[in-house]
Prior knowledge:
The protein is mostly helical. Helix 1 packs across helix 6. The longest helix is centred in the middle third of the chain and has 27 residues. The chain starts with a helix and ends in a 10-residue tail after the last helix.
Amino acid sequence: MVADVDAALVKLVVGGVIGAHGIGHVLGWMPAWGIARFEGMSSHSWLLSGMLGEGMAKLGAGVLFVLPTIGFVAAAAGLLTGQPWWRQVAVGSAAVSLACTALYPQALPMGSTIGAVAVDLAVLYAVVVANWDPTGASV
């Protein structure tokens, strides 16, 4: 009985963290698409802005940051409802999130960047290395 409560609590907390992490990616795509402005943040890419121009790099930032927003929220919903696909969505979202951080290092405040990378690496470790899956659908 206690183990069931503990497992459910862990699943709820992890689902909440993954969902909140996804929502945090709005800090990347909202400014890139001109919906919001955050002081000191930039959609400039050290790699893409020079190659594609600033406008295309901003468009790319918007697309790249919106993917983990949708993906992590979907993964959290899948985890909390016991769907077997949540793991693949979480891993893909973590990979895209890390790419966002690498390509657009000034898109988020430093503390958010550190937190985002930590959550991304934790998701990748838990799912890929430790094969964690409380839904029982581990492959």
